[in-house]
Amino acid sequence: MLPNYIASNLRLLRKQQGWSQSELAEKVNLNRGNIASYESGSAEPSICKLLRISRLFMVGARDFTRKDFSDPGELAIAQLTQREEKSQEKASVSEFRDRALELGELVVSSKKLFEYKRTKLENPCSEAELMAAQYQQLYEVTQQLLQEHRELLGKVGCQCQ
To answer: Which of 57, 83, 114, 129 is most buried, by the most CB atoms less than 10 A from its CB?
Structure first.
């Protein structure tokens, strides 16, 4: 069975910050009773609550549950690891934003090329008109997906802050 350090780590980190159980509870949107039961070991936080708590203390949830932070070295390593992971997340989000911009520019230039070629057709056949309508639908769906992609990156980016 793996060790579980939630109770002791929570108590230790809360006290290091000089927070009461009520103050910590407020910071992670819980009540004092939740914090008290986690610290006593009579209950364990759900994954979402554990993530909120570990994020507040700038350590990973896995380290929060599996490492003994009464050893200052363990805590320092966990915090360093978390900072490195956050940095990598920010870099990834930035790369995805750059790629989304590139893709958006590519789609717009593709549309311009399509429209230019279409204006050069003197008498387009019905098949060409059907393909043009399908291209327009594809363009609109692509624009919608790119917008949703940008919104998702905005939300993910906020969580990386």
So the answer is: 57
